[in-house]
Amino acid sequence: MPSNKSVSDAPIFQFTNCRILRSHQLQREDLWVREGKILNPEKLFFDEKGSADIQLNCKDSIIAPGFIDVQINGGFGVDFSLATDDVQSGISLVSQKILSHGVTSFCPTLVTSPPSVYHKVLPQISVRNGGPHGAGILGAHLEGPFISKEKKGAHPEHYLSTFDSGAFQDLLATYRYLDCVRIVTLAPEMKRSSEVIQELTRRGICVSLGHSVANLSQAEEAVRHGATFITHLFNAMLPFHHRDPGIVGLLTSDQIPARRRVFYGMISDGIHTNPAALRIAHRAHPKGLVLVTDAIAGMGLAPGRHTLGQQVVEVDGLNTYIAGTKTLSGSVATMDSCVRHFLEATGCTVETALEAASLHPAQLLGIEHRKGTLNYDNDADFLLLDNSLHVRATYIAGERVWSQDIFTI
What is the pLDDT of residues 41-71, one digit of tens each? Predict the structure, then answer.
């Protein structure tokens, strides 16, 4: 008869006394993990005749997939848009610090910058798995410089660019390095943007629409050419109008290609979007909502002056403004706080709030077969949370990488 070790010598962990988020429901089950993957207990019992080597009592915690932040500009004094000689150490610091907020994977985000910044920073960003050293890096999110002057927000106008002369070649000249790039935010009304969207999509890079004055038909055309995301819905775009709802209209458009889903980011910090607008978006298109922090270097630090790329930013409580103005410039919100605010503001289910920070960003990036769920054979990146959705412990590849001092298992 086969033994527990017939398939692998690695120990089997059984997480008990918990509620697992699986198939959109919290289920009273145990979670089984081996070699960094979620294990199917039926195969273990019946095929391997195996059992757990180590049992861990989760003390009635919720177990949910690790959060995935696809728009984060920095934090804890680190600004990803600053061209230093050691970008990796800054990214590593942020990746370590965000573990306590439940983030197990993220996309370091660069705001509009001069080409010299991209040329220096992007070669220093590499995709890597998470672990005790910090959250995994899924690739960079480049927000600009191919955006609208009218909706530039906190992006410096003199560094904005267009596709007028060479389309995709203009983008290549600006960024130079695309190997580590996962998302590009651009304004779809720009000339020759369709060519750029098609080429980025062909290369497996997600195209997001944002910082734009596009009307609905221009946004729909961009989706037909491959765009799948909207950068921080409602912010830095034309406001909803009943005769032409602009990019916001994509949430209920009947012109989306079959089997294509448009996702949209929401900064659920209580500052960027009124709770009523958050509810409208969620009720209009719940399966597309992706929570993002849009956090800046000031996240986790005291109020005061910080940077966002080439701009100086003043942090006053939860508000972040370009110094001397009332122009919002990112947030200081953490992902777990965004999840809690979303739950409270919309009255959605706990499952829905958790999936907006895990399943949906994974689906956006096409990695839901590895991350964003607790399905069998997926990466064992997960969180233990209490009933109010505060993080008790964070696990990556089945290994505990952070926990509260009072909560150790």
Answer: 988 888 877 788 999 999 999 999 999 999 9
The tokens 């009933």 sit on which residue? 387
Instruction: Kindly report, residue by residue over 333-350, the tens digit of the pLDDT.
Output: 999 999 999 999 999 999
**Residue 276 burial (10 A CB sphere; 0-12, 13-18, 19+):** exposed
Q: Where are the alpha helices (DSSP H) in 176-215?
A: 193-202
pLDDT value at residue 1: 34
The amino acid occupying position 280 is I
**Phi and psi at residue 309, to the nearest 5°:** 65, -120
Which residues in 133-145 are b (16+ Cβ under 10 Å) and which e? ebbbbbbbbbbbb
Pairing relationship of beta strands 103-111 and 140-143 according to DSSP bridges: parallel
C-alpha to C-alpha distance for 111 and 103, rounded to whole angstroms? 21
- Residue matched to tokens 């560094």: 159
Tokens representing residue 126 in the block: 């590499």
Q: Spell out the residues 6+ positions from residue 304 whose beta carbon is closer than 8 angstroms to its own.
A: 298, 314, 315
Peptide bond into 123 cis (omega under 30): no
Domains of the chain, earliest start first: 12-65+373-403 (2.30.40.10), 67-365 (3.20.20.140)
What angle (nearest 5°) sits at the alpha carbon of residue 92, between those of residues 378 and 123?
95
Residue 35 half-sphere exposure, CB side, CA atoms within 13 Å? 9
- The pLDDT, as a whole number, for residue 409 is 64
Angle (deg, nearest 10), helices 216-224 and 193-202 = 30
Catalytic residue from among 294, 336, 379, 381:
294
- Give me the torsion for CA of 38, 42, 44, 45, rounded to 10°: 150
Task: Quote the CA–CA distance of 206 and 231 in Å, as a whole number.
Answer: 11
- Comparing 2-6, 58-62, 90-94, which segment has the lowest mean pLDDT? 2-6
Q: Is 294 a catalytic residue?
A: yes
Map residue 247 onto helix, strand or coil: helix
Share of the chain above pLDDT 90, in %: 92
| Identity at 287, one-letter amino acid code | K
3-state SS class at 275: helix
C-alpha separations of 369 from 259, 309, 359, 362, 402 in Å? 17, 34, 10, 8, 24
Alpha-carbon 107 to chain mean position: 6
pTM over 0.85: yes
